[in-house]
Amino acid sequence: MKLYKVSVVPIFTLLTLTTSFVLPLPDNLQAFLGVENEAPLNSPAQDEGFSRPSWFTSALMARRLLALSPSGVITTTFPDSLPPSAHAPSDVAGLSIGLREYIADCDSSLPKDLSHDDNGSPTILGLRIGTTFKNIASGSNLSLQLDWWDHLDEAGPVYPGLPLSPAALPRVTLFGYLDSLPSPLPDDAAAALEACFLGPHPDAKVWLPGASYSPHASFWARLVVTHVYWIGGFGDVQQIGWMNLTEWQGIRPYGSVAGVGDGRGWKDVRLPVKTSYITMRIARPRLRVSQGESAFAVGNARWTNLDLDPIAKERRKWGVSSLVAYWISDAFNAATWQFASSIIAVGLTYREALGIVALSFFIMSFVIAANGAVGAIYHVPFPVIARASWGFWGSYVAIISRVILAVFWFAIQNVNGGNAVRVMLGAIWPSYLTLSNTIPESQGITTNGMIGFFIFWLIQVPFLCMHPNKLRWLFTIKSILVPIAWIAILIWAFVSEKDGGGVFTAQPSTLPSSKYSWLFLANMTSVLGNYATLSVNQSDFSRYSRVSPRWQLLYIPMLPIVFTFISFIGIAASSAGQAHYNLPTIPWDPTVLISHWPNRACRFFGASSFALASLGVNISANSLSAANDFTALAPQYINIRRGQILCALLSWCLVPWKILESAGNFLTFMSAYAVFLGPIASIMLFDFWIVNRLGVVPNLPGLINSVNTGVDVGVGVHPFQFGWLLGFVATTVVYLFLSWVWPALETRIEHAVLPDEVYERGLGLDGVDELGLGEKHAVVEKV
């Protein structure tokens, strides 16, 4: 490969510098002519509140200018001694000349062994007969000047008080040397490079290297940039001076390499086109996710992005108090209240209902704690951990299964929150409750209910745009206000009905023992299904933990106590409400109970506690879970924010008010919910903790019958009635047996790679030793 050694000149001194010009040393580059960056005192820009963009933003704009420039002025110098064949006046020897040449930012189109990794080295089609390339071949310095001046008629005013001016538009000069590409290029590389270059230059097809019809010999080359000089415009609103070469080389279209800038790519900025300086800095929405290059999958955005990467130490904000507040916040929601009440509604006593809730959450707490500890060690979400157990492609089974259910649960909480908003509005404007209904009764929702649903959905959208680390205050507020309100409701229940109502005096069930057992198991499955999603995705939240994974064990005593207490509140309030207001059925929906309260202020604040409860749990447990799954499915296009918005939009498509139309429907949904997640939780838990290395089919007949009772499946309905337990236990046995007989040794690596090893280059590692795993944890699977 032939190298042409060159140096170059800044554009603003183009006519005065010669080959004797010596570039300043790198550590002095920023200081060189740095006085130009000083904004004059009391300038119009300062009066208008303008401020210069950062140097990294300027580098992004410079790279965008390169990408959008089809040509540039290459400045070279004639040799000191001109041969007769030059046909040039002898006195131009040693003088500079600038000629416009075709260029394109096509380095990324080349194979890895030929490219410079899209580091800002423009591709040039050189003609050996051209003056520019003759001078370079003779040892000339060169510069490549790019500017935005041709777009003056498209640009809006970019400086206060002045008309349109080319001087206010950006330009950049690149210094370096010309590096010729191999000739001929491999066929695939040549085809890719030609396709990229001919896009902005279709006429250049005539001069392609090797073309038999080309009138002149040509060659491909790249300008390897060694220095960059930038003039963004007027000095008090734009940067002027030497750019950081590392930033220039580390910028990509959709992000930047790890450690460069703030992670943005050049497609996240705009050059002045029909807009003001202020609005040009606001990037238009783009389909691809804007972010830096992952430190854990360099060059491959197919499997990860920054939202899927392990959380860096400085971003781990959740301590013990945050974890406790989160779970108290999550537990106090309408679904937990409705569960115990709906169990009673299908024929069991309150003692049996509380026993089911306590036992279910005792079982679930072990699974949640075990899977949560994995997230606290590796600081990655559920979809990434699932790859260790299911493989990269197989993990899509678990991810898609969960994302469907997470979106369903988000939609259900929207109905709960919407009902609370409807009661709140009715407390303020009683006429709202008598609003004429224009929705068919068969749809399971009224006009005022739909309005409440929409308002609640709209209220939570801004929260979906916030990062989970910035929402701890919401969980803390909810963990304080909602328990106070619900304990007040419990006090009201026992004050209004001293014996607690009919539920507490009901006779034990007289069902035959076999039917009673299946009913008990069916309700237990429903309770397990209530938090089956968190049994697999606890790592979505524990990844933000800054404390030892041992703190996940706190859930084992805490969850059964908290959830059983909330269920007791629901039972007591529902029972008291039925007795106090002489209702024909138990008001298992808390908003139905609250709507009977005569005091409008009590109705408003009581309903607002349920609205806040639904808001908190929807954001923390449902939208974030779905967002992580959507992000894993398409990390190039979806991040956590986009995933949460997508979840919110899809919730409308699921008509969740049909699910909550009756207690039976709700229990059916929750049973179906657990069928799929039990096996997923089992595989993840035992793969990490025991195998370190499938069981759904028996439940399917019962699932079919629950969806369509007209399909008779005989005794096949019974396995479905304890679907989560059957799926979890059966999958555990089968998976452990298969892993013991046919261990997947090829999926293992020699030692665990913790995120801190990558972030800190091996300094200050923690996490594994906190669990006391020692050498047993030295072999893990590829994630």
TrEMBL record:
Pfam family of the protein (one): Transp_cyt_pur
Bilayer topology annotation: Multi-pass membrane protein
GO cellular component terms listed in the entry, alphabetical order: plasma membrane
Transmembrane segments: 353-378, 390-412, 445-466, 473-495, 553-573, 672-691, 722-742
Assigned keywords, A-Z: Membrane, Transmembrane, Transmembrane helix
Sample GO molecular function, one term: nucleobase transmembrane transporter activity
Cellular location(s): Membrane
Top-rank lineage group of the source organism: Eukaryota
CREG-like beta-barrel domain location: 58-244
Family, as annotated: Belongs to the purine-cytosine permease (2.A.39) family.
Entry protein name: CREG-like beta-barrel domain-containing protein
